Amino acid sequence: MKEYDVIVVGAGHAGAEAALAAARLGGDTLALTVDLDNIALMACNPAIGGPAKSQIVREIDALGGEMAKNIDRSFIQLRMLNTGKGPAVRSLRAQADKKSYSLNMKRVLEEEENLNIRQGIVTELLVGDGVVKGVKLKTGIEFYGKKIILTTGTFLKGSIIIGDHSFNSGPHHQFPANALSEHLEELGFELRRFKTGTSPRVDKRTIDFSQLIKQPGSEGDISFSFTELSSTQLKEQVPCWLVRTNEKTHQIIRDNIDLSPLYAGDIEGEGPRYCPSIEDKVMKYPEKERHQIFVEPEGEYIFEMYLSGFSTCLPESIQVKMLHSLPGFEEAKIIRPGYAIEYDCVNPLQLKPTLETKVIKGLYTAGQINGTSGYEEAGAQGLIAGINAMRQLQGEEAVILKRSEAYIGVLIDDLVTKGTNEPYRMLTSRAEYRLVLRQDNADLRLTPLGYQLGLITEKRYQKFKAKKEAIEQEKQRLKNYKIYPEDEVQSYLRKVDSTEISRDDTLGRLLRRPELNYEKLAGLDKERADLAPEVIKQVEIQLKYEGYIKKQLKQIEKKKELEEQQIPEEIDYEQIEGLSAEALEKLKKVEPISVGQASRIAGVTPADISLLVVYLQKLKREVTKENQHE
Amino acid sequence: MYFKDTIAAISTAVGEGGIGIVRVSGAEAISIVDQIFKAYAKPKQNLKEVAAYTAHYGHIIEPEIEQVVDEVICLVMKAPKTYTQEDIVEIHCHGGSVPLRKILSLVLDMGARLAEPGEFSKRAFLNGRIDLSQAEAIMDVITSKTEAGLQVAMDQLEGGLSKQIEDIRSKLLTLLANLEASIDFPEDEIEGFSFAEVEERLSEVLESVEDLLATSKKGRIIKEGIQTAIVGRPNVGKSSLLNALLRENRAIVTEIPGTTRDVIEEVINIQGIPLKIMDTAGIREAEDEVEKIGVARSQKFLQKADLVLLVLDANLGVTEEDREVMDLAADKDTIVVLNKIDLESNLDVETLKKELATERVIEVSATEEIGINDLEELISELVFAGQVEANDQTLVTSLRHQEALEAAYEYLLTVQETLAQDLPADFLTIDLKAALEELGKITGDTVGEDIIDQIFADFCLGK
Q: Which end of chain B is more exposed for a tag (fewer CB within 10 A), N or C?
């Protein structure tokens, strides 16, 4: 009987990363998917990245994941967002060719050694003594595996709703996974019902683009992956378009609102606040006279256009009316209607920070099944689940990223510590240390870990080390480069619209001036070497904002002790006298691994933490004492 | 919570005790106290260089204004042979809440953090000083003190303060949510605040925090002393009263460097309450220059005063001018000092009370030093009216609030600086969040989810 090391159920964005990570770490891996033609399908927006998400994509890349490379292979437009709001929130976003994104990822999976992919619907997990053993497919066949990773996305009891019409379905009208959902509940998982939605797709040839505002891509060499800079100049970028709703659109929505299952009460699932349907926007913000809709191509060679911001589950006939009220869309034809989709997901409080479930040993979950939304959030969890499944198998220490190390750390910590009441999306405002979690330094933060895990090649690591060294050297050089208040210096400073220096200074300090940058200092810098643009960018950011970065590092340092103080798995919270009832209940539920994590649980007060710390010390000293007696 | 910073607390019961102790523990303990301590015998001596387990006699000085706060003995103990196994300095000062609080607040200003309930014992235990059997006792202390503290904190938060802090918090959240929304949703059409708007909102909040800090009377007693105006017509005996108060109490005269003689300030310590007498020079000169200065002068100082001593001449009765001064001081704590009672009096106290509509009339003779003690009693009563510190919890919690408010204030000032430097929006959010976190220490709120909720409450976002 063949036994796989890892079986991944699902091959969406989470599943693909999980399967690749497991296989690349040497695991004999099987990836099962409902439909082999829909690997890494972008079921909603044809885009990857954006604020907080581009940071995640680059973290995935630094840890040896595939998402960044795959979007670099498949993009049709790149846009740098938030360019004026600070380096930490600058974010890259790509429009993807949906089909090529999926095909490219399929090819990567196919080519991966150790990885087998197969079509099939899992109906049951094989479990013995609380440990997962394998999976059973709808067709009756069984596969055995030491570790199982569930990445079921919106397939669990998926239900698509359009107006008063609803039917069981996975995303994009694929087969749903109904039996597995019931089975999970029997195993002891607390399932919850979430809802999300997508917009109608329109035939490009029926849109009058002269009435729309063109949204071109950004210029310059930009890419997601740190491995290669794909040149946008080599590729003709495809534009997106902007159109706005108007009073007529809103009137149609208001007149027909009772036909919306959202308002008729036919949808019970919690929807995301950051991704409201157009009917929600109109009804909840009546004072807003118009809403933006971004018209995005679904691919380079097809005529299908996605209407971002126009997500709806009103009846199809109303969708057509709404669409026709938009300027330029008077004759537009819907080729797929928008819909809402409800699905089951697990309560992430039932997960460990490794993404292994607390309910069944050896079982991991990643992606939308954990209550998140977004391709990037899913990919990140898949990667971590894949890594940790293999690490556990190999008897290695689990990888748990800290909140101060990565957005991925923030994401997983939020999920397993606080849980979520709506589909969770990453936002930069969720990261308390976002100034050090930039997209530009994701490689500096995480490549060493990726290398240590065995997911980054020696060649790439050497290249990374050279870059890091170049950055440090150049920073040091600028910090030591003295300039004096001489005429030549002063007149140069005036020339670049800066102010004179009053005493001896260094180039490193001058770089902090808001009006100056690395390039502008060239005239004062007589020893400048020819450095790679990514090195210069790092030097500039690190020196320019040094004060603020240091402040943040200090905040991290202050919490370090709490974060590093571990809580033994076998702790009995009932033994800690004085804990508030709420704290006791929450601590038992969450099972935090560190005092830091415990301190973030809602309802656990600083006094509770004090008690916990004293209790832990007591345990430790009792153990020492026992050892001494022996 | 953080284990390695330096903590401080008053470690004696606040009340009538003759001696009070402020205890400071942590790596910075000695250098912190060194900044505010001046040894009597060797003013240049650095506490960092003294031997462990030595006592040093001297003064605690408020460094900014070089003003003596109290005479003290500092006990310096060095790690690891101390209660907490960290460096410890104990400042033994005069009992009574005011010097203790003043010294504690100076220590906090220098970088120590106010200790959590039971934190010294907790550290002692964590650092291996206390026997295992006492762990339970320490946990009891943490629980009970916290519960008592919470009770007091709740009591204090009722009655306005909590509403004011909530108000400030919500204004900051609105500001932060605005910045965050445009960062996280760059393509949504958010009506983001303009630079000028951010600036305006920020200074509005800063003002509220300032007000709150200022109106927190207790806080100000510790920090600045009570601004006291002695007013009255010429020759009623203002100067003699001043001298009488000075004679009875150890006065501290400070000449602020680089300023003229006019701003010499005399601080009279009355039952532990520092009274800052405004314009002492003026009081003395006015006695010489008859009729030159009257209501006009009073007016000027009345505005700034916390406490007004209106001096009347018992022989001359009440004039129109006196009534005007009473009106001007209507919203202040005012005491009418009926002077020269050793001479023949034309005024009946009861009639006077009716006439001026006040109960606070004290008969004294400044030159004969009659009634001065009664006056001091009344001042003390007034200052601590209804808020005498009965237990140390009240004190600690109010100080904790003040500490948090002041920290928030500092962060907001930094935001203002960042704004002035024209740095991108993200940099504003760092200290804005820190300020919110400080305020959260008072209200018990955390920042994380609050911001997200506010963003979605304020804006229609997403696509």
A: N
Hey, is the C-beta of A599 within 8 angstroms of any chain B C-beta? yes
Interface of A with B in 66-105 (CB under 8 A): 81-82, 84-89, 91
Question: What span, in angstroms and rounded, lies between the C-alpha atoms of A297 and A215?
Answer: 12
pLDDT value of residue B327: 79
Which stretch of A226-230, B407-411, B450-454 has the lowest confidence by average pLDDT? A226-230
Q: Is the pLDDT of residue A100 over 90?
A: yes
Residues A187, A46 share a domain: yes
Q: Look up the CATH number of domain B220-383.
A: 3.40.50.300
B237 pLDDT above the threshold of 60: yes
| Residue-range definition of the domain harbouring residue A324 | 201-339
pLDDT > 70 in chain A, percent: 99
What confidence score (pLDDT) does residue B144 get?
64
Task: Give the CA dihedral A179, A181, A183, A189, nearest 10 degrees.
Answer: 180
Q: Which residue of B has its CA nearest to A559?
A: B2
What is the second-level CATH architecture of the domain B7-115? 2-Layer Sandwich (3.30)
A558 in a domain, yes or no?
no
Tokens 């200090």 belong to: A554
The pLDDT score that the predictor gives to residue A108 is 97
- Counting Cβ atoms within 10 Å, is residue A159 exposed (0-12), middle (13-18) or buried (19+)? buried
Beta carbons of B192 and B182 less than 8 angstroms apart: yes
**For residues A142 and B96, which has the higher predicted lDDT (pLDDT)?**
A142
Which residues, other chains included, contact B189 with Cβ-Cβ below 8 Å and sequence gap of 6+?
Answer: A292
- Out of A288, A291, A617, the one facing B125 most closely (by C-beta) is A617
Both A317 and A358 in a single domain? no
Q: Are residues A356 and A327 in the same domain?
A: no
The three-state secondary structure class of B365 is strand
What pLDDT score does A152 carry? Answer: 96
Name the residue facing B142 among A82, A276, A611 (closest C-beta). Answer: A611
Percent residues over pLDDT 90 in chain B: 21
Q: Tell me the pLDDT tens digit for each residue of B45-65.
A: 888 889 999 999 999 998 877
Q: What is the pLDDT of residues A223-273, one digit of tens each?
A: 899 987 555 555 789 999 999 999 999 999 999 999 998 888 888 888 888
Domain match, A113 and A207 both? no
d(CA A544, CA A562): 31
User: In B354-443, which ranges are E strands?
Assistant: 361-363
* β-pair type (B273-277, A131-137): unpaired
If asked whether residues A334 and A236 sit together in one domain, one would say yes
B60 Cβ partners below 8 Å, 6+ apart?
B36, B37, B38, B68, B69, B70, B72, B91, B93, B103, B106
Q: What is the mean pLDDT of residues A393-422?
A: 97
Asked whether residue A302 is domain-assigned, the answer is: yes
pLDDT digits (tens, 9 = 90+) for A531-577: 999 999 999 999 999 999 999 999 999 899 889 999 999 999 999 98
- Boundary residue ending a domain (A339, A360, A380): A339
Query: Under an 8 A CB cutoff, do A292 and B126 touch?
Result: no
At residue B258, the pLDDT reads 34
Question: A526: domain CATH number?
Answer: 1.10.10.1800
A119 in any annotated domain: yes
Tally of structural domains, chain A? 4
Considering only CB atoms, which chain A residues are within 8 Å of B452?
Answer: 427, 429-430
Based on the domain organization, do A193 and A291 belong to the same domain?
no
Q: Which two tokens stand for residue A176?
A: 């749903």
CATH code assigned at A424: 3.50.50.60
Residues A321 and A393 in one domain: no
Residue A247 and residue A317 in one domain: yes
Q: CATH classification of B161-216+391-458 is 1.10.357.10, yes or no?
A: no
Per-residue pLDDT tens for A499-511?
999 999 999 999 9
Taking contacts as CB-CB distances below 8 angstroms, the residues of chain B near A576 are 139
